[in-house]
């Protein structure tokens, strides 16, 4: 499996919700005073393309996390995500707070570039 985000090669991560299960449509139901439902739907145009790893897979080094952070802090920028041959245009999803999270695999006071993290979550939105 090959995953590359903005030129950075990532480990074997997977989509939180696979794109083939998403419609790109959002809906809402409101109710009139008499209780009649009013349903509306619209095209949101973006898919949640967030990537994740688990406690025993998708390990990522601090060095790669630092590179990802450098991409994430660039405002109003999109990147290419290549995921197993599929190409997406994505942006980091800042709406929910920090778009990158991970847990240090082995706790220590000084973390080096080669130390590994697990439970990786990279929040992305894309087309």
Low-confidence blocks of residues: none
Q: Estimate the strand proportion.
A: 35-45%
Number of strands: 13
Structural Rg: 18 Å
The main β sheet shows up as: 6 strands, antiparallel
Structural class: mainly beta
Number of domains: 1
Number of helices: 1
Strand order of the largest sheet: 2-1-9-10-13-6
- What is the CA-CA span between the terminal residues? 21 Å
Shape: elongated
Mean pLDDT over the residues: 86
Topology overview:
Layout (H helix, E strand, L loop, with lengths): L2 E3 L2 E3 L3 E2 L9 E7 L5 E7 L3 E2 L2 E2 L7 E2 H11 L6 E5 L2 E7 L7 E5 L11 E7 L1 E3 L1
Antiparallel strand pairs: 1-2, 1-9, 3-7, 4-5, 6-13, 7-12, 8-12, 9-10, 10-13, 11-12
In a few lines, what is going on in this structure?
The protein has 127 residues and is mostly beta strands.
Explain what you see.
The protein is mostly beta strands and about 130 residues long. The protein has one domain. It contains 1 helix and 13 strands; from the N terminus they run E-E-E-E-E-E-E-E-H-E-E-E-E-E. It has one helix spanning about 60-70; strands at about 5, 10, 15, 25-30, 35-45, 45-50, 50, 60, 80-85, 85-90, 100-105, 115-120, 125. Strands 2-1-9-10-13-6 form a 6-stranded antiparallel β-sheet, covered by helices on one side. A hairpin with a 2-residue loop joins strand 9 (about 80-85) and strand 10. It is elongated and about 65 Å long.
List keywords for this structure.
127 residues, mainly beta, five-stranded antiparallel beta sheet, 1 helix
């Amino acid at each position: 499996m090959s995953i590359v985000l903005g030129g950075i090669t990532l480990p074997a991560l997977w989509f939180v919700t696979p794109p083939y299960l998403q419609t790109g449509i959002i809906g809402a139901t409101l109710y009139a005073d008499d209780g009649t439902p009013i349903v509306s739907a619209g095209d949101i145009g973006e898919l949640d393309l967030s990537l994740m790893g688990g406690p025993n897979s998708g390990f990522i080094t601090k060095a790669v996390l630092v590179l990802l952070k450098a991409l994430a802090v660039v405002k109003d920028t999109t990147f290419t995500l290549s995921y197993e041959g599929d190409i997406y245009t994505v942006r980091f999803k800042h709406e929910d707070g920090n778009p990158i999270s991970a847990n240090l695999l082995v706790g220590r006071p000084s973390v080096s570039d080669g130390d590994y993290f697990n439970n990786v979550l990279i929040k992305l939105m894309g087309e």
